[in-house]
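Can't paste images in this forum, so I'm doing it all in text. The chain is below; anyone willing to post the predicted C-alpha cells underneath?
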Amino acid sequence: MTAAANHPWGRVDADGNVYVRTSDGERLIGQWPGGDPAEAMSLYVRRYEGLEVEVDLLEKRLETGTLTPDDAAKAVTKAREQVTDAQAMGDLDSLLTRLDALQPAIDQQREERKVARAAKTAETLVVKTRIVDDAEKLAASDDWRHGADQLRALLDEWKALPRLDRKSDDTLWHRFSSARTTYTRRRKSHFGEQATQRDAAQSVKEKLIAEAEELSTSTDWGQTAGRYRDLMTQWKNAGSAPRNVEDKLWKRFRAAQDVFFTAREEENNKLDAEFEANAEVKMAILADAEALLPITDLDAARRAWHDIADRWEAAGKVPRGRIKELEGRLRTVEQAIREANDEKWKRSDPEKSARADDMISKLEKAIDDAKAALAKAEASGDARKVKDLQENLASRESFLEMARKAASDFS
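Text version of the structure:
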C-alpha cells in the first residue's frame, strides 16, 4: 500500500486517490495508483498554478482594455468552467472569487463603451450631415473646375466614417448620392453646352481669319485699319474656341494683322522721311510766327498772321512724331493774337463807350449845378451850406476824373 500525502488544499490517500478541498468539501480529481504521492501532488499543484496564471492574465488584459467587454465575459465564463471542474490542487475558491470580482469591471467597461459609441454616433451624424449639406451646395453651384474634386474628397471622408443606424445612414447616403448625381449631370450638361459654344466660336473665328488674311495686302491704310479694329471686337465677342485650336487660330489671325500693320508702318516711315523737309520749312515759319510775341501792334500781327497761315498750309505734311509739337507752338501764337483781338474789342465796345460818355455828361452837369449852388451859398453867407456843397463838389469831381479815365480805355 502506498503511503498517504497531505497538502493545505488537498491530499493523496493510501490508494492513490487525489482529492482537492473546496468550500463544498473534498472532490476527487484523479488517481495515482502505485506512484509516489509527492509526485502526484506536485502534478496537480502545477495544474493549479497554470489556472492561476490564466486568471492573472485575464485580470491584466481587462485592466489594460485589450479585451472587449463581450470577449472578457466569454473568457471569464470559460475560466470559471475550467476552475470549477479543474483537476488541480490549490485555492480554487479564491480563483472563482477573483473571477467574480471581474464582472463589475466588465459591466463598467460595457457602459463606458456604450457611452463612447453613442458619442461617436452623434459625432458621426454631425459630420455626415455636414458632408451631405456641402454636397448639396456643390450640386447647386457652378463650380465646374473644383466641384468634382471636392465631391470626391467628401466621398473619401464619408467612407472613413463608421455607419450609423441603418435608417439614418441610408437617408443621409441617399441625399449625398443624389447631390453627386445632380452635380455630375449639370456639369456634363454645362461642358456639353460649352463644347457647342466653342465649336461655334471656332467657326466664327475661322471666318474672321479668312477676312483678315484677305485684307493683309490692302494699301487702303485708314479704312483697312478701321476694319481690323472691327474684326478684333468680333473676335473677342466670339468667345473661346476649343483649347487645342484656340492658340493656332489666334496666331493666324494675329499674323494677318501683322502683315498689314508692318506694311503700313514701312509706308509711314517712307512718308515721314519725305515729310522731314516740310518740317524744316514749318520750323522757319514758326520762327516768324513766334517773333510776333508778345503782341504790341495788333493790326500788324493780324496781317502777318494771314501770310503765316497761308505759308503753313502750303508747306504740307510733317512726320507724325512732330505734328503735336509743331501744331501746338503755332496754336500758341494764334491764341495770343485772338486774345489781343478780343481785348481790343472789349475796349472799343460801342455800348460800353456810350454808357461811359453818358456818365461823364451827367457828372459834368451835376458839377456845374453844384458850382452854381456853391456861389449862391457863398453870396448869402451860409457857411454850413457852403461846406456841404464844397464836399459834394469834390466828390463829384473825383468821380468825373475816374469816368474820364475809364472812357479813355474805349478810345
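The chain has five domains: 5-107, 117-194, 200-270, 284-347, 350-408. The chain is about 80% helix and 5% strand.
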